Amino acid sequence: MPTNVGLYSYLAACVTFGALALLLMFAGRQRPYAALLIVANALTALWAGVIAFGTLADYPPVTLMQLAELARNAAWLFLLLRLTAAQFAEVSSLLAGRRWLYLFIAGAVAALLLLTLPSRLEDVVPPLGRAASAIGLGTWLAIAVAGLLLIEQLFRNASESERWSMKYLCLGLTCLFGYDFFLYAEGLLFQQLDPNLWQARGLVSTVAAPLLAVAIARNSDWQSTLHVSRHVVFHSVTLVAAGLYLMAMSVVGYFIRLMDGTWGGVLQTSFMVAAGAMLLVLLFSGKLRAHARVLLNKHFFSYKYDYREEWLNFTRALADIGDDVPEGIVRTMVPLVGSQAGLLFAIEGGRYNLLANYQMPAPEGDFDMGELPAWLEQSEWVVDLDEWDASPDMYNHLELPAWLQRVSQPWLIVPLIFGTRLAGILVIRRSDLQQGINWEERDLLKTAGRQAASHLAQFLAQKALVEARQFDAFNRLSAYVIHDLKNILAQQSLMVANAEKHKDNPAFVDDMIETVRNSVTRMTRLMDQMRSGMRDSQLELLDLADVLRTVVEGRAGQRPAPSLEVVDANLRLQADRERLATVFNHLVQNAQEACDKRGEVQVAASRDHGFAVVTIRDTGRGMDADFIANRLFTPFDSTKGLTGMGIGAFESRDYIRGIGGDIRVESEPGVGSTFRVYLPIPQDKENVAA
């Protein structure tokens, strides 16, 4: 039975250290200390395997076992020496060359001679047997003391931040060298090793392995890049803890059975059932599981959060927030700290407004932020209201808004920073699961806040763009209406100016009545357009020559009077008569204004490859190529000062293109300009050249 105990004890150590060495070998070879850690763990696994094999042999390979143990100790001592060298300049300079390697090899050879030579001399000189045993045990004891001294120096001279990462290494190696010290000191005292202590040595080494693994995880210079899921670790620890619990209960039940022969079986069965029920209660206890998860996060991982998983979950949640962006931002951010509700504020119209109140009532009244936005934008710091209340000097005695007192259980104030500007302020309600936050929660909230701020800024920009487009559409419609009113007013003004001279002329009176009727019709249409918010268009089959004749006759009162030449009198097309006449009226008016009274304005209509072409030519000032390309058809860009709207040419081309035509311009400064209006003729569309 003892042999089996020793076998299982050392096999456990062999498997544990072997697995740790494999983890480092496959994922951590690029780290500075990874090679040393791989060798040390591999040699420890080899040492445990050799001793486990020795427990099965009739004649244990003592020399091989001693060599394996010496190699294990040498590897760990060498690692400790390298770590200690970083703290002492003189030791570091010594290890910089090859001298240290020779010294280390010499020490290992000396230890090997002290361990093996006396036992070999015992066969030659029998009285040396007791001395040989004492020398061997003393050598092992000295090695253990050397290891403990290096551990003590390493921990003593480490800074506070380094001790956090070093302590588990020191604890793990103290288990190895400390137990060796106790084992060999007791053996040296009684001149023989205790078999029970020897068999338990493997289990003690197994206990040291998890401590070393935690130390490797906490040191970025050592650790493997292999990732172990927190969920796997948590559930694995749960299973191990449950197994240990059942083993302990089995031992207690066994002793209950021994103590009472008559009732022992009944009591043992009852106790085991009760213990099993208690185990189920513990496993299904949410509070206990939460405490266990906190314990694992604090002591078995470098960080509390698995940031990769947190970031992926947060990004996925932001992508699924839907149309209600403000509420979606609150809904995705508050669970990061175990909360379930929050408020989101952002600046609109020069003041902060409440955009979302997620699962908590909105406070009444105004939201005067005071100095809070400027402080948050400058510091980018998460305000913990508990910390602010207890230590206001940590926040430079920041004065918080008065409306916070009307908020139900406020806890944290998180700035949403977009670039370098504050995009929003998130107020998180107190969590029922978490009492406080540390630096990790602050960093997590600030990082998530930056990503949420980009969504919020995009939402606000899109909202402002929609409003701007609505105003732009209204302004454009207003500009068109004013432009049409200006044309109507020009006709009315001309009619009033000629009334004194021609009021006794019946033809003039008839023309005046017709002009007023047309003006009323046009103004009625304008009113309808203002009410509907859009410019309607009534298509009809038009005689182009008739439209041009009306326009030319209407512009005849201004000098130079335009002339009309219709090359093809059979030009009919689909268009809105009033809008088409407005286009020609605008082009003819511009041609007249570009000329002096001695100039010429000619209007001609012809057919060209399925298009009716209206040519308006003047001998006025003309335009250069840059003006035609960059300003002529640009809305609200006028050369007429306050009297012009700058939309006539733009509106004209926009309408002509809307019915399938185009306007082309040729001009030369000092010579004149030619506008050609191409209008599609319905029956000739199939003959249009590509």
Describe the model:
The chain has 690 residues and is an alpha+beta fold. The chain has four domains: 2-226; 244-299, no CATH class; 309-467, Beta-Lactamase (2-Layer Sandwich); 537-687, 2-Layer Sandwich (Heat Shock Protein 90), CATH 3.30.565. It contains 21 helices and twelve strands. The chain has helices spanning 2-27, 34-56, 62-85, 89-96, 99-124, 128-156, 160-190, 195-218, 230-259, 264-283, 286-299, 307-319, 325-333, 372-379, 385-390, 439-502, 506-532, 544-554, 577-594, 625-630, 648-658, and strands spanning 342-348, 351-358, 383-384, 410-418, 421-429, 540-543, 563-566, 572-575, 601-608, 611-618, 662-668, 672-680. The protein has a five-stranded antiparallel sheet with strand order 2-1-5-4-3. A five-stranded mixed sheet has the order 7-9-10-12-11, covered by helices on one side. Helix 1 runs antiparallel to helix 2 and helix 1 (2-27) packs parallel to helix 8. The chain is elongated, with a radius of gyration of 47 Å. It catalyses: ATP + protein L-histidine = ADP + protein N-phospho-L-histidine. Keywords: ATP-binding, Kinase, Membrane, Nucleotide-binding, Phosphoprotein, Transferase, Transmembrane, Transmembrane helix, Two-component regulatory system. Its EC number is 2.7.13.3. Residues 480-683 form the Histidine kinase domain. One of its GO terms (molecular function) is ATP binding.
In short:
It comes from Parahaliea mediterranea. By secondary structure, this protein is of the alpha+beta class.
Strand order in the largest sheet? 2-1-5-4-3
Number of domains: 4
- Termini Cα gap: 102 Å
Biggest sheet overview:
5 strands, antiparallel
Quote the average pLDDT.
Answer: 76
Globally, the shape reads elongated
Structural class: alpha+beta
Radius of gyration: 47 Å
Give helix % range.
55-70%
Uncertain regions spanning at least 5 consecutive residues: 89-98, 223-229, 641-645, 685-690
Instruction: Count the E strands.
Output: 12
What percent strand?
A: 5-15%
The tally of helices reads 21
